[in-house]
Design brief:
single chain, 237 residues, mainly alpha, 434 Repressor (Amino-terminal Domain), 3 domains, 11 helices, flat
Length: 237
């Protein structure tokens, strides 16, 4: 992501160089296979496309046309802080002056996406940029607990996302009673394990994820999951 005018100019120069290099590709070079030529062309096109997107993003932010920034998660906050500074027309030096630090420190913060900043300093940056939230921040405690329950089972279902595993277990929960819930989870995991592709199984065995006694491990896991899921979703009759 382009963060200042210096980087913007460097990116413009780099784009021109890549476009010139792409134009200079000898498509009739007898020493190259047509696939090699095509590969070179595609590589340049991808690089050029990426630089154009970065330039366009920076230019849009600088234009002042962006009124709000939306975040899907807190993980997007560091990039949002950089975008907000550019959008309000504040330089890195001006932001540094507002929070009482050096311009080079802001450059380091942004280069590392604010990964090494203290919480207090992060709050100061947000306040200096006039950032406010128009809705409460949601912390999904139940989803966090559920992920802790489901993650150990993902090794048996490598082709499923954690959301897909959740949906499958919800279906099992709805179609089970207390006596068979653990059994049905175990059968599901056994069936899933037997369907693991050879390459995925080999990798899991090498990593020790399936264990030497995977059948026993599976049964223990099914019992733990059944108990913890009922604690979370409610006891089955």
């Amino acid at each position: 992501m382009i963060q200042n005018e210096r980087q913007y100019k460097i990116t413009q120069t780099k784009l021109k160089e890549l476009e010139q290099a792409s134009t200079n590709i000898d498509r009739a070079d007898p020493s190259l296979h047509p696939r090699q030529v095509l590969s070179q062309i595609n590589s340049y096109e991808q690089l050029i496309k990426g630089l154009k997107q970065e330039l366009a993003e920076y230019e849009e932010l600088k234009s002042g046309q962006i009124k709000t920034l939306q975040l899907a998660s807190l993980a997007e906050l560091p990039i949002a802080l950089i975008k907000a500074r550019i959008a309000v027309g504040m330089t890195q030096k001006e932001l540094a002056e507002k929070i009482g630090t050096q311009e080079q420190q802001i450059q380091r913060y942004e280069a590392n996406h604010y990964s090494a900043i203290s919480f207090d300093r992060l709050v100061k940056v947000a306040e200096a940029l006039g950032i406010s939230f128009d809705a409460s921040v949601k912390i999904d405690i139940e989803w966090f607990k559920l992920k802790q329950i489901l993650e150990p089972a993902l090794v048996y279902v490598p082709e499923l996302s954690i959301e897909q595993l959740k949906a499958k277990l919800e279906q099992i929960y709805q179609n089970s009673d207390d006596l068979y819930f653990e059994y049905n989870i175990g059968e599901f995991l056994k069936e899933a394990r037997s369907g693991i592709k050879d390459d995925s199984r080999s990798l899991a065995l090498v990593r020790g994820e399936l264990g030497d006694n995977s059948e026993q491990d599976l049964q223990v896991l099914a019992a733990e999951m059944a108990e913890r899921l009922q604690d979370l979703w409610g006891k089955l009759a």
